[in-house]
Amino acid sequence: MWQAAIKATGDGTVRSKVMDIARNLAWPARYTARVLKNAFTERWHDDIDGLEAQAETEAAEWRAAWLAGDVSTANTFVGEVAGLIGSVRPAADILNEIVTGAESLLGRKFV
């Protein structure tokens, strides 16, 4: 599913509670998550009551899609900066790059 996040832009995301309902999670209404838009969110984002009425069936379909890596149904959780991601790299490489850049900008080495 990370491949979908790499291809995305911030405009391809939406804050929604659809995936929480689909996962049978009872989050407080004020909390949502940002995910990639897909056919599932397009169908249910503006029909939360309809989704809740069919939650059991839709949850099973969403879960199966998640396990299968089907991003047209299961949502990939991302932030609006998804468009800035160009590749998947080890965290250690990213941290080393950040530290090296900071050291260069500050003109000194950290111990």
SSE layout and pairing:
Layout: H1 2-7, E1 13-16, H2 18-22, E2 33-36, H3 39-44, H4 48-53, H5 55-68, H6 91-106
Antiparallel strand pairs: 1-2
Features:
single chain; 111 residues; mainly alpha; two-stranded antiparallel ribbon; 6 helices; elongated
In brief, what are we looking at here?
With 111 residues, this protein is mostly helical.
Radius of gyration: 18 Å
Coarse morphology: elongated
Spatial gap, N to C terminus = 38 Å
| H-E string | HEHEHHHH
The helix count comes to 6
Strand order of the largest sheet: 1-2
Tally of strands: 2
SSE-based structural type: mainly alpha
Strand content: 5-15%
Overall mean pLDDT: 86
Largest sheet: 2 strands, antiparallel
Residues in helices, as a percent range: 40-55%
How many structural units, i.e. domains? 1
List low-confidence stretches: none
Could you please describe the fold and organization of this structure?
With 111 residues, this protein is mainly alpha-helical. The chain has helices at 2-7, 18-22, 39-44, 48-53, 55-68, 91-106; strands at 13-16, 33-36. The chain has a two-stranded antiparallel ribbon with strand order 1-2. The radius of gyration is 18 Å and the shape is elongated. The mean pLDDT is 86.
